[in-house]
Write a structure and sequence with these properties.
Elements lengths: L17 H11 L5 H22 L3 E2 L11 H4 L3 E8 L2 E5 L2 E5 L2 E10 L6 H13 L3 E2 L1 E4 L3 H4 L14 H21 L4 E6 L1 H5 L3 H9 L4 H16 L7 E6 L19 H5 L4 E5 L19 E7 L9 H11 L8 E5 L14 H19 L2
Parallel strand pairs: 1-6, 7-8, 8-9, 9-10, 10-11, 11-12
Antiparallel strand pairs: 2-5, 3-4
Helix pairs in contact: 1-2, 2-4, 6-9
Length: 371
């Protein structure tokens, strides 16, 4: 596999080094100038790129080292949206549950893109990646977030009397940002999608959405169209994949269940591949992969980022063989199940644990697919 997604791939975020966490805390306390924080971020991103290269990957991300959260830093730069009171979200974990309070999104004006949402950061990652001989990968939150999180049809008030206009403006914001990323040299883009595999897949969350007046099945199809509208102008030499995520905070998750209720999205969303969480039995079977559109790649997230326990290579191969009964082996790939730090605190692993898991992905992929 010479173009992304690679047989050995990653989802995006890395554990923030202590130096970076300390610098960010000092900056927020007014004790470290922005320029000095940026310099420390630059240094740590060089280390992140080196980690990807040393582990054997053909691509790299910046580890989300300039972000405090997987979606907040992106979303807050869009005109017309602001963050309000926190939402109470309970993440499940192997040890019980984890409390997390992301802010509510409030729509106060028509949506517009009047500044870079990611391009500045990507433009600084690109030359570091090129110098290391790697492809730079950018990860952005899905456009469905702007609709589902407090801007759904019944909550857009007087700003968008016609909800279809809301969808149109969301897609326009994303088309403009993706065009800017392309102009800055981005050729590998990942869209992190939590609503389709989360709220519209988990049986309990589907029931909650129905109680609120939503039709989960119809929303899956509408969200597929929204993503398609957002990426419709992507040039042929830009790879776009969707990461289907069920939540990732401090080793916890907010949704579970198989992909069966949303499998239609594998066919309807017009992208090059899907990163799919398959690290535990709660993810269900590989059967929904039968809906994968022709030519699309399924990147199997078999290596968990939620705990330090290292997977067995033979077991990973066995599960890849199982998936290959549904999708041809040459259209499969391997990755961690999610990022290691979707939120700044990170998951309960050490940097050594993280490295071992990344190395395992590459080693296993080489033995399954070759160099």
């Amino acid at each position: 596999m010479r173009t992304p997604p690679f047989h050995a791939d990653t989802v995006g975020s890395l554990l923030r080094p202590k130096r970076l966490l300390d610098a960010r805390a000092a900056n927020q306390a007014g004790k470290l100038p922005d320029a000095e924080l940026r310099g420390i971020e630059d240094d740590e991103i060089k280390r992140a790129v080196a980690l990807h290269k040393n582990c054997g990957f053909r691509h790299t991300t910046d580890g989300d080292f300039r972000r405090r959260h997987w979606f907040m830093d992106f979303i807050e730069r869009i005109d017309g949206l602001r963050f309000g009171e926190p939402l109470a979200v309970r993440f499940k974990s192997a040890d019980g549950s984890v409390e997390f309070s992301p802010p509510r999104m409030e729509l106060y004006a028509p949506l517009k893109r009047t500044q870079s949402l990611t391009r500045t950061d990507f433009a600084q990652l690109k030359p570091v990646a090129v110098a290391a001989g790697l492809i730079a990968k950018e990860c952005i939150p899905s456009p469905t977030l702007l609709h589902f999180r407090s801007t759904r049809s019944r909550m857009h008030s007087t700003i968008y009397p016609d909800v279809e206009k809301l969808y149109e403006d969301i897609a326009q914001v994303y088309r403009e940002e993706i065009a800017a990323l392309y102009a800055s040299g981005c050729r590998y883009l990942q869209i992190d999608e939590t609503n389709i595999p989360g709220h519209l897949s988990d049986p309990a969350l589907r029931a909650a959405a129905q109680k609120e007046g939503e039709d989960p099945d119809a929303l899956v199809v509408r969200y597929a169209r929204l993503i398609n509208d957002s990426v419709r102008d992507v040039p042929d030499d830009m790879t776009v994949c969707v990461h289907m995520c069920r939540g990732n905070h401090a080793g916890g998750w907010f949704a579970e269940g198989g992909y069966d209720p949303v499998a239609v999205s594998f066919r309807e969303i017009d992208v090059d591949g899907f990163f799919l969480e398959y690290d535990t039995p709660r993810a269900g079977s590989f059967a929904p992969l039968a809906h994968l559109g022709q030519g699309k790649v399924a990147v199997l997230g078999l290596v968990t980022t939620k705990s330090p326990k290292l997977e067995n290579k033979d077991e990973l191969k066995r599960r890849i063989d199982q998936a290959a009964k549904v999708v041809p082996l040459d259209r499969l790939a391997l990755s961690p199940q999610c990022g290691f730090a979707s939120t700044i605190e990170g998951n309960p692993l050490s940097e050594d644990d993280q490295k071992r898991k990344l190395e395992l992905v590459v080693q296993t992929a080489r033995e399954v697919w070759g160099s």
